[in-house]
Design a protein that fits this description.
It is found in: Cytoplasmic vesicle, Clathrin-coated vesicle; Golgi apparatus. The chain is mainly α. 70% of the residues lie in helices and 0% in strands. The chain has one domain: Serine Threonine Protein Phosphatase 5, Tetratricopeptide repeat. Helix 2 packs antiparallel against helix 3 (52-60), helix 4 (66-82) runs antiparallel to helix 5 (86-102) and helix 4 (66-82) crosses helix 6 (105-117).
């Protein structure tokens, strides 16, 4: 019985490592550190909040070009909309909350521009994870 949570932790670690490796191979060199900071802030580990160091790196991107900030917001919203893991979705929402509360004007502006465009989309959770268990 205790082996299933351990197996799930191992699977989550492997998924996080694979996501970071994929980002390292496919991301533009200008935004690679921001993509990695986003992936590290929104890990699959359900017991740890987003690391403040990585949140600060994302918030610091708000003082760069609008194109870079747009890439960060798009990556955050893409991660939120494509995940099937509740802890990743929660961490994405926490990151968006930090952008709204502490982010620069450019970050907040790009987030506000992106949200109406994505208004028709929903989160990608199976019904079994949403319904409460009795």
């Amino acid at each position: 019985m205790g082996q299933i949570p351990i197996l799930m932790d191992i699977i989550g670690f492997i998924k996080d490592s694979a996501s970071q490796s994929k980002a390292a191979m496919l991301s533009d060199t200008k935004t690679l550190s921001l993509h990695l900071a986003l992936l590290r802030a929104t890990t699959d580990d359900p017991f740890t909040p987003p690391d403040p160091k990585h949140l600060d790196a994302l918030l610091g991107s708000g003082y760069t070009s609008r194109a870079t900030v747009s890439t960060v917001v798009e990556a955050l919203m893409d991660r939120l909309q494509t995940t099937r893991d509740a802890s990743v979705a929660l961490k994405c929402l926490i990151t968006a909350h930090h952008i709204v509360k502490r982010g620069s004007f450019i970050l907040q502006d790009q987030l506000s521009v992106y949200l109406p465009m994505a208004a028709g989309t929903t989160l990608n959770f199976p019904i079994s994870e949403i319904t409460p268990r009795r």
